[in-house]
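Bench log, entry 3. Co-assembly request; chain sequences pasted below exactly as received.
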Amino acid sequence: MPDTLTITDNRTGKKYEIPIEHDTVKAMDLRQIKVHEDDFGMMAYDPAYMNTASVKSNITFIDGDKGILRYRGYPIEQLAEHCTSFLEVAYLLLHGELPDRPHLEDWRYNIKMHTFVHENIKKLMEGFRYDAHPMGMFISTISALSTFYPEAKDIMNPDVRRKQMYRLIGKVPTIAAFTYRHSKGMPYIYPDNELTYAGNFLNMMFKIGQSYKPHPVLEHALTVLFILHADHEQNCSTNTMRSIGSSHIDPYSACAGAAAALWGPLHGGANEAVLRMLDEIGSKNNVSAIIKDVKEGKRKLMGFGHRIYKNYDPRAKVIKQLAYEVFEVTGTNPKLDLALELERIALEDDYFVKRKLYPNVDFYSGLIYEAMGFPMDFFPVLFAIPRTAGWLSHWQEHLLDPEQKIARPRQIYLGAGERNWIAINKRS
Ligand code: SDX
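Structure output for the full assembly:
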């Protein structure tokens, strides 16, 4: 049987053979379907891209029904268990292969050479109020980096792209930590390139006075969390990165836009929203009332559900296990019992079962972050740090894809037909 779709347009009786590739039809192949020769031709309507593949990618694979997530073919569970450094996974995402030792050392060296930020960045941050949301500061500062490196606009030059990737992956932890220190009115701690990626970040965040040594369990937990959050194929923020990048702007401006999309409570802002929801619930006695509100459509159960996963998010499983390791060191987060009770009730309730709503990556991550001493409004920043590597991988793949051009969707126009100007004194 041929790999084609036979479409009969019952308006005209005409038949069309549409080729099928990768179990997909090309939307442009629909344009030949017309009633009149001068018609524009058929389009597909797909709000929120529920069933539209806008790119071909080799980076990340997700099977939502089976709860599978792989970076360049490697199961996320294996990467979380075996990779001792986030930079190893960032290399994998960007280059397509796990690095051998020399390549990993070279990669690590080059990123460490770009962890500092221009001193003017400190002046830029002074403009923010003490209570500015760290994600707002983060987004603004990432965007401002484009003014320090104008050569970054030479995006088709691989050496220029590589250097901006070193800079962004190297500087996002520094900028993130600076937003935290600014909000606390504390002096900035400069990067210490003797430390690991996660260790250096914790040091810049929490060092007070001379002595600070990241606890190895917490440093490892943060490394695993960074690995789990590094990429997730065509999520809202990555789609934004690709769309902005398709206009051929520099990667700093594209990353700022992607981070803005990530901040939304339906996306990467959910980890903060989960903790605020748990605070609002307060105790197990109130869980049934919240579940009732959710089932009545009054609110969403934050940290639950996913566009792709109709099974348990594999990352949530790893994070749930990691939480116990962290709590061994920090002491249990009292909200854990509340979260477990919420999960237990939800997974037994037909409303959630029928809609295949399971805990996602954001349901448990906030409990760990809070136990580690991060403030709630800082959680989306913790998501953006590792996701920068994923955004850059997709940005580069998009730029090098010969089938891609500037992203510019069509629309179904349902507005007013042509009409003539009306003088203001004649308007009703
Ligand atoms: C991330 O895309 C990615 O890959 C994202 C991410 C990544 O790594 O980049 O995985 C990170 O963003 C995780 C998701 C974090 N967001 C939340 O936890 C917020 C709460 N979740 C929902 O808002 C929702 O589940 C979404 C946004 C995540 C997914 O929404 P969809 O795919 O558009 O699903 P939907 O809204 O169409 O829901 C289908 C049904 C609806 O009910 P009905 O209209 O059929 O009656 O399920 C219901 C929804 O109301 N539903 C929920 C729910 N999520 C969906 N009901 C209650 N609580 C929820 N959390």
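Residues 370 and 376 are 7 Å apart (CA to CA). The mean pLDDT is 96.
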